[in-house]
Design a protein that fits this description.
Helix content: 40-55%
Strand content: 15-25%
Largest sheet: 4 strands, antiparallel
Strand order of the largest sheet: 3-4-6-7
Shape: flat
Structural class: alpha+beta
Number of helices: 17
Radius of gyration: 25 Å
Length: about 425
């Protein structure tokens, strides 16, 4: 009998405890351009009732990374609400270049963090048992000694105590936070960390995900490539490995399905089989952690032959990004082409494609019919009531979609999808 191996990794002291509410609702924003305007009061609200206000500027990924490090050091020192650290320590730990720019950027970040006020309205803050309405400040005060170069940071007591007592939390690896250079990938990493605390599969509408992040995009065709790239970045830079499938039932609509690939520490596989498969990979890919995790996961769940044929397929067909190609080959079992009759498989592909096109055409026609009925019901209302419905719809949209609605009305396919969803969700009111 083959010996079973369980992969191990060393303990990590750089784990930051974060309440899941602050992963779902942003404490910083991935749009770097929003951080350029200084000393202009800004307020951001989402449709759930989360309000984020600042009189300085909206913080970006750099500010978020500094906040995570300060929180980590507080936790390492027994959840102290007052910590004293050197400039060099903070700047270096956060992956920032040491020098005049790094020191100045640190001071800007602390100014920014001190100005933050977050409000959870309508009882949306979940503590693991019940929903409540809460208001937080993050940093109450900070200062620095020019002679010693040491910084003093005072956290908000209420915020820090809420994190310390939280039973609805996740530990994040600070090494991952620094390693992720893409702001969009980092924000997606936070959302995935929150979801994967209790689930291994997350299915979400592309527009809804863009609102959660939030992203400044207009069309699904803009969202999906950016999310794909962010997932690749997460897989390459962090200990989290995720697969992504995109389903497009209608034009202007997409459902994203994220699936967590369990860590090697949690996967029991045959060492002999694992080593044999690893040797089949190109030499330069054998030390890729993401590839190792995909290999072990599918070896356990699909078997040796399944993984072997997909490695062989990837070796013969991957041109640029081997890791991404190999991942998709495993997900779709592209390697089965190697063991099935090629002419039979080609005929099956043609049939599948024809059926898929027919289904898409049928779905589009049904959508057109459903939307036509909705428009008829809207037109049947008196003008005042119809205008109220459209005003409520416009208010429910994120900024980028609202601009699209103002420009094109209900003519744009993406707006039509959103309006149909809005109409059905508010059928009892409309």
């Amino acid at each position: 009998m083959a010996k079973i191996i369980k992969f191990q990794q060393g303990g990590n002291k750089n784990l930051v405890k974060q309440d899941l509410n602050f992963l779902e609702y942003p404490l910083w924003f991935q749009d770097e351009r929003q951080g350029e305007t200084i000393n202009i009061r800004k307020t951001w609200k989402d449709k759930d009732g989360y309000t984020y206000s600042t009189f300085h500027r909206l913080p970006t990924k750099v500010d978020g990374t500094i906040l995570y490090y300060l929180l980590l050091r507080s936790q390492q020192e027994g959840w102290k609400d007052e910590i004293v650290l050197s400039k060099r320590e903070i700047v270096s730990a956060c992956g920032m270049p040491w020098g005049k720019w790094g020191r100045k950027r640190l001071e800007q970040a602390l100014d920014c963090l001190q100005s933050i006020r977050v409000i959870f309205e309508d009882g949306i803050f979940f503590d693991g048992e019940r929903y409540t309405s809460l208001t937080f400040h993050i940093v109450e005060a900070w200062g620095h000694n020019e002679e010693t170069g040491r910084f003093y940071v005072k956290f908000s007591d209420q915020w820090l105590l809420k994190l310390k007592a939280s039973v609805y939390f996740r530990f994040l690896d600070f090494n991952d936070i620094v390693a992720v250079s893409s702001p969009l990938a980092m924000r997606l990493y936070e959302l995935l960390a929150k979801v994967f605390t209790s689930e291994e599969i997350w299915e979400i509408d592309a527009i809804e995900l863009a609102e959660k992040i939030p992203m400044k995009v207009v069309h699904v065709s803009h969202i999906v490539p950016k999310i794909r790239k962010a997932v690749e970045h997460i897989n390459e830079r962090t200990g989290l490995t995720v697969s992504l499938e995109v389903h497009k039932p209608l034009r202007g609509q997409a459902t994203l399905v994220f699936k967590k690939i369990r860590d090697l520490t949690e996967i029991d596989v045959s060492k002999e089989q694992y080593d044999d498969l690893l040797k089949l990979l190109p030499d330069k890919e054998q030390n890729n952690k993401a590839i190792q995790k995909f290999l072990a996961y599918y070896l356990k769940n699909k078997g040796f032959d399944y993984v072997k044929r997909n490695i062989q397929y990837a070796n013969g067909n991957a041109r640029k990004n081997y890791r991404l190609f190999f991942q998709r080959a495993l997900e779709k079992d592209w390697g089965k082409n190697l063991v099935e009759n090629p002419s039979k498989k080609k005929a099956e592909r043609k049939t599948d494609l024809k059926q898929e096109k027919a289904k898409l055409a049928k779905d589009r026609e049904k959508f057109k019919e459903d939307f036509k009925k909705i428009l008829e019901e809207l037109k049947a209302k008196d003008k005042t009531e119809a205008d109220e419905v459209l005003d409520a719809f416009e208010t429910s949209l994120p900024g980028f979609a609202r601009a699209l609605f103002k420009k094109s009305g209900l003519e744009d396919p993406a707006v039509q999808v959103a309006f149909k969803r809005f109409w059905e969700a508010n059928a009892h009111r409309t």
